[in-house]
Amino acid sequence: ALEDADWHRPLAPVLVRALGAALDVPLTLPAGAPAQRWRLTLEDGSGQAGAFDPAGATVVGERRCDGIPYPRYVVELPPPEGPGYHQLELESAGADDRPPARLTLIVVPVTCFQPPAIGDQRRLWGPAVQLYALRSARNWGIGDLTDLTTLISLTAEVGGGLVGINPLHALFPGNPWHFSPYSASSRHFLNVLYIAVEQLPEFAECAEARQRVAAPAFQAELERLRSTANVDYPGVANAKLPLLELLFEHFRREHLGRGSSRAAEFRAYVAERGESLRLHALYDAIDAHMRAQDGSRYWGWPVWPGALRDPAGPGVREFEAAHRERVEYFAWLQWLADEQLGKVQRAARELGMPIGLYGDYAVGVNPSGSETWSDQALYRKGAGVGAPPDALALKGQDWGIPPQDPNVLVEEQYQPFRQLIAANMRHFGALRLDHVMALFRQWWVPVGLGATEGGYVHYPLDDLMSVLALESERHSCLVVGEDLGTVPPEMSHAMDERSVYSYRVLLFEKHADGRFKGAAEYPRRAIATVTTHDLPTLKGYWTASDIELRRRLSLYPSDEVRGMVADERVRDRSALVDVLEADGLNPAARDACADSYGQALSLAIHQFLARSSAALVVVQAEDLIGMADPVNVPGTSDEHANWQRKMNRDVAAIFGDADVGRLLDAVQAARTR
Hints:
Strand order of the largest sheet: 9-10-13-16-19-20-21-22
Oligomer: single chain
Helix content: 25-40%
């Protein structure tokens, strides 16, 4: 049926072509069709027009549908001179009441954006942090966008060119217990708990809000929130959201009510983000409303009353009309978060950082969130994305992430993908795509079946990479693909062809015989790191505390497998010392035992990484100060404090530490060598 439908329409929904390439447009018409008129309207509003007569034209293919032959032709059109999203219309030159056929033409640059600063063989570096984990004397128990500005400033002072952060995607304001940054409500928008409330202009204007914050009980609560080992998300939400509601009332009265310049800025943001923002704010308003009635029952839109499940239905329109101020409040929160994030990146640029913020884009979203509610045709609710069986997951994996239908992506002219990429590149100088292989294929597991009964569904890789390149150029944003695990050769080729940077983790960069790769063996077009948020910290890895943690959490399929991992760790420690010494570094850990971890070893490992050929290097914040506990333990939920653990000292103290200073100076020296 899908194949027949493709032959029943004159034009495909979308066509992607490289800038400068010939513009050959496939055209399918029923046999004997009259001449056609076409008009190509470019993104800037200019246009070209012409005609095509199928009589005598070369047929490049044909299919018979319902007994009628449908020949296919190729129409050669003058290619646009610049990249962009253009529109092609085609209609019969004869008497025909049918509406014109339409095609979105996407003309793209050959490669993704390459920052000039690394085009001349410069090698950059910077720290990578979980924003929520940052401590400071002024935040409200969670790292916020003002803490991020502080980190940017401190990094720039020691020569860093970027700061990596976890996904900042929008979560669920009505449910602060849901806090995984990789299980977002929407990747189009931001987590509003990162707003630095006391930095808002409205806070400076509102005496009532300042008095409430200054009250001894409120200050005592802030001290408690700052002192916890893990982020108390409900406590943070209880502190921030009521204050933000108070400030919104002030904003409505003093700005929207008086038509101030700040009100105009908010209105401009709302207009810019358009329908996407309207739907997200509407979702948050409905979600908060339903959870207030019964949070244990109404955990997301799939269990809302039927009238509220369809965003275009009359029930949702009635809700919006009855709760306009509430919907506007959630749009206002997004504006505040966007405004503060934009200021962070501008500060980075003003300090001379070539990249500044290096953001993270999650591979999927929570099935009950705003993104799936807003575009239900795109997401297949009858399947979950996962992984086929492997040595450590013999039954395969089902992550519960609803997959996007590649056919719907095409029908929607890739707009969902391009809007997502554009939204995530707004304020970033570099963007990491989590599990980049998802652009090529995803393992779909039908609901009710085991992961072993799933199968690979392929995606239009070349088209998606092309859209990625166009948005990358438009936003001057470098692209990094997280290509860990099984990487099909098609994906590696596409990344190389589009100048997407590879993601290289030192702990995995080994030869088949177990030797670690030398610094010169790292590819130039890569970002290198010692470890990641899904792996043990450097100290945890060296001391093997991660193996013990996984044993306690019953994450090994058998004691035999755990023993194999422990034996491999012993070999890896020795091999890592070997590669360090071969590079002329003295790790002071020649015995390579678990208790030999120390500052000298950490210094040597980071120097080695900094000497690598990779254009970019990130240093995990936990490794700077020798923290052992991991950020996240894959395969767990409540069993471990994933996405909650804070840094064990504040940002200023980390950069003021003498050992950290020596390590960062050594990294800077190696990167600029």
